[in-house]
Amino acid sequence: MQTNTSFAGSAALVTGAASGIGAACARWLDAQGVQRLILIDTDLAGLQSLELSCEIDLIKGSVGDEALWDRLDTSHPQVDFAVVNAGVGGSGPIAEHGFESWRRVMSVNLDGAFLTLSYAMRAMQRRGSGSVVVTSSATGIKAVAGIGAYGVAKAGVSHMTRIAALEGAPHGIRVNAVAPGGVDTALWDGSPDFRKAVEANGREATIKAMSGDTPRGRFATADELAGQIGFLLSDAAANITGEILVTDGGYSL
């Protein structure tokens, strides 16, 4: 893979990096010649399993923990690129969604995204440049019944991206988001219904069945998303900020 000079000698932050889109982004940035990766996840073993050639700082913790970001302000003051990706799943109709479950999803998907973005923008303001991509969701754009807090959090993340882009522009900071539809990642494994379907039919058949209402006819891969995120991070997208790139195979049409 050709190295993109946008990333040479730089430091990049990726949250939710132990698997799925986050791990794919870490591999993509490593291949592009990034000097240092700051990788955050609650799954330390997953972080340690990544095979990367650049300098790596592995941090176990929840992005919803404000104290984590206070520590990073001091210990890791330089960030040139950030992928605000950590997230958890959540389902249930609004009328039946328990508040504890609602807050669990919001704590990571919205509060955690805010804390990550806030830290990254402070670091980038000190340098006078930077680029951020936030992982939103097509369900933050297209209303989908039964996903409770998840869709609401992702809608908030998309709008936060636009506000951050306006605030970051005078400091040379670009902020964009991707809004994926279905992506074949471990995030699905947290759903009891998904696990039951996998037990009955196997994972491949379950994912294929779930992608039936996507015009493209299949879910995206984490590597496909990483390439799109990488483009938005890079100098190739220098004139793009405040955009929500819907990458859903036509699902939201």
SSE layout:
Elements lengths: L10 E5 L4 H12 L4 E6 L2 H5 L6 E6 L5 H10 L5 E4 L14 H29 L2 E6 L13 H20 L4 E8 L11 H10 L1 H8 L11 H12 L10 E4 L6
Parallel strand pairs: 1-2, 1-4, 2-3, 4-5, 5-6, 6-7
Overview of the structural elements:
- This protein is of the alpha/beta class and 253 residues long.
- Helix content is 42%, strand content 15%.
- It has helices at residues 20-31, 44-48, 66-75, 99-127, 149-168, 192-201, 203-210, 222-233, and strands at 11-15, 36-41, 55-60, 81-84, 130-135, 173-180, 244-247.
- The chain starts with 10 loop residues before the first strand and ends in a 6-residue tail after the last strand.
**Relative strand content:** 15-25%
**What would you call the quaternary organization?**
single chain
Q: Largest sheet, order of strands side by side?
A: 3-2-1-4-5-6-7
Give the helices and strands as they follow along the chain. EHEHEHEHEHEHHHE
